[in-house]
Amino acid sequence: MEKATTLGSYTDKDRVTDRKNSRETLRIYLECLKPSRKYIVLAFLFMLLDATFELLIPFLAGLLIRNGVEVLEPGAGFSSAAMNQILMYTGIMAGLAVLAVIAQSFAMKLAAIISSDFAERLRNTLFWKVEEFSFSNIGHFPVAKLSTMLSNDCNNIRFFILMLNRAGLKSPVMILVSFIFIFSLNWLIGLIALPLSLSAFGIIAYVIWKTRPQFVETQTAVDALNSNVEEDTDGIREVKAFCREPYMDRKFGRANQDLTTVSYTAFWKMSVIMPITQFVISLTIGIIQYFGGWSMLFTSAAFQSDLFLMFNNGAVFDAGELSMLSNFTAALTMAFSFLSMLIQFYGRAQASKERIDKVLLEHIDISYAPKPQTEDFDPASLTDGRVAFRNVSLTYVGDLSKAAVGPLDLDVYSGETLGIVGGTGSGKSSLVNLIPRLYDASKGQVLVGGHDVKDYTLKALRKDIGVVLQQNVLFTGTIRSNILWGKPDATDAEIWEALDIAQASEFVKNFNQGLDTPVAQGGQSVSGGQKQRLCIARAVIKKPKILILDDSTSACDMKTERQIRAQLMSKLKGTTILVIAQRIASVKECDSILVLDNGLPVGLGKHDELLQNCEIYREIDEIQKKGVGD
Predict the structure, then answer these.
(1) Which of 188, 268, 384, 587 is 20 to 30 A (C-alpha) from 69?
(2) What is the pLDDT of residues 64-77, one digit of tens each?
């Protein structure tokens, strides 16, 4: 197979980082397990009972042979002492087998409960962490990667917890007790079997350690595959419009090939574990049969040997002891098989955990933590809609010489309407994103109501600031449920008022189900203009002190845009409104207009003033007028 070419390699530096992260996140995983501690104790007790019952069966089988089969005389009836011994041991073994099945069933059920509950808490913890991410944090983790973590990675850890409770508690007990019995019966066989088993375990552990990087790369390949699917489904209209299906097929095929290649590399290395285990167990059984046969011969009365008596701890070795050794080896075989499976699952779970650790340890640069209240300032409420920028700069790359915005100083008074225009990439959206702290300024201060935005709680800022971003998103549900995002306790009358302001009430009334009309994921069941107007209604329903409209009417016709603007001026008189627009007509009636170029302010004033003294603004206006004339 070809070697994957699009995946990164797992380095020693990554391994050191992952080990450090693992120590730091251990507390979080223990917290996820803590509510299940009673189930864990019960599962351990049931597994202990199961192991005890299973280990008693080979011991009793040996006694049955020694005290029953070996002394049973030909032609003896069912009433003979030997037959009574056989029946008694058979009955006890059957009862123990039933008890073992019952104990194992309860233990497996508890293991399923423990692992499922753990995975639920881990997914919740992971999702809540992501919900606290700022835009900067989200930029570190692609959506496809987060989706894989919440599904595939969490499931890998869940399955390991399941196997840990099923095999991880039982197998060590089975192995330890089996070796104790083997040593008590014939310590020479024990001395031979023990290093063989330890060597096999060491080889398995080494294989797991060597294949862990491949499992990390496997999960990365799953991310890439999911990303391709997500990109194709989100842009299916564009794919079909440009006849790019063959290109998307090839792109998906490469991602699929990468996943196949790295999965093959990981799993063929892991596949050697089972043959190693089976070889060691088969070798141990062969040793037992070989030395056991000689022990039976040379401890008999006819060929008694002091050497073999010593190996058998001074006791005669008979068919009963050989049966015990064989059966305990069979139990050892089963325990080692389950343990090797557990180690395989550990390799996958560890790779998944290391990915999740990075999310759990991501530093939240904009915290939801509460702010202290003082005598003259309440951080949980905005006093008014004044906005001020004091020597503000924002950079996405950590270098102020490559700032997306600034340095910039600006005052917007409460109730004022500010238009912001400029070319693509001039920093318009970046500037307004600083007000509700979707990003934090790299330098300088952003003030709202005379106080630094960092002094307010995020809940207060975003409760009193309405935002309609460039990428309008509606959520799966109904029109009503989407509008209620702005104000959860709003009445139907308030919803219709917000729809009126956004010029959306007419088309909503035309829907058969009105406010209860279903909305598909992402708002795909409505047109672009309808989606924009619903998003505006969602923002204005809470009557915010500050309203940010980021190119939010670009899909609306000029008449509808004018009507929306008129309604905003009429119904939200005390609200500070910031309007980002590509069209001069959208901002010409604003109280003032800010012109940006490469993140820097190059003009500020009313429409007529800027036509006189701002060349960039005048060029934009002339180009747009020419386009209208043409």
Answers:
(1) 188
(2) 877 776 666 555 55
